[in-house]
Design brief:
- Helices cover about 45% and strands about 0% of the residues.
- The protein is mostly helical.
- The radius of gyration is 33 Å and the shape is elongated.
């Protein structure tokens, strides 16, 4: 098998470490107060929905030996 003598097959990949751009990205704009308030309200709405679904779903996840409605089926009465 023939082996390549180059350490890197493409020269621009080897030169990539030496290159530094003199172009700086523009500074980020700060979000306005209304944008911050909107993001906060969306976050609170999501959290309130998760908490509400947890509170409403917990009773259905509980397993109890006695039925909550207090009625028995006819099959259990005839045994």
């Amino acid at each position: 098998m023939f082996r390549r003598r180059e350490a890197v097959p493409f020269s621009f990949v080897a030169e990539q470490n030496n290159f530094r751009s003199n172009v700086t990205p523009p500074p980020r704009e700060r979000p306005s107060i209304s944008q911050l308030g909107g993001r906060t309200l969306i976050g609170l709405t999501v959290v309130a929905g998760l908490v509400g679904s947890l509170l409403l779903g917990m009773p259905s996840l509980e397993s109890s030996a006695v039925p909550a409605h207090g009625q028995q089926s006819e099959a259990t009465e005839r045994r």
